[in-house]
Design goal:
The protein is an all-alpha fold and 145 residues long. Helices cover 77% and strands 0% of the residues.
Length: 145
């Protein structure tokens, strides 16, 4: 079973503030936010198998898009789908971590919360797959003929 964030060994990330003392407070706060977001994204890809699978599928979509010569609008749709899947998977991971932190015992409400969160990811992933097929399949058929 995967360790909770709270149970994981502490990670000593360098304090971004030490290098940002000469920056204005607003810029420093923004850079702190970017730093902590990067830590979250890093944790997501290191700890979640689905994240790595989705990253591979996203990379394949980008390569296919380059090879098939997608138009600007098609690229926008593909990028939105990729970002939505990643973002919702991160929210799902956060919800699961929070539920695991609240209780280690089975609770019907926690099961429903986790199932709903996973269902949201599945819904967006299936919609993205359908969108990808609608964009890529005609181009593939055209190339084959």
């Amino acid at each position: 079973m995967k360790k909770l964030v709270s149970e994981a060994s502490p990670v000593n990330y360098p304090d971004p503030g030490s290098r940002l003392r000469h920056w204005e407070p607003a810029a420093r706060n923004f850079l702190h936010s970017v730093w902590y977001a990067a830590i979250g994204i890093s944790y997501f890809f290191r700890s979640e198998r689905n994240a790595r699978i989705q990253l591979m599928l996203a990379a394949l979509s980008v390569v296919a898009g380059i090879l098939l010569g997608l138009e600007k609008t098609e690229w926008i749709v593909i990028v939105i789908c990729i970002v939505l899947v990643f973002a919702l998977e991160m929210v799902n991971t956060a919800v699961e971590e929070l539920c695991n932190l609240l209780t280690t015992e089975f609770h019907p409400a926690v099961k429903i919360i986790k199932d709903l969160s996973a269902g949201a990811v599945a819904t967006v992933a299936l919609g993205s797959a359908a969108t990808g097929l609608a964009i890529f399949l005609p181009k593939l058929i055209e190339r084959i003929q």
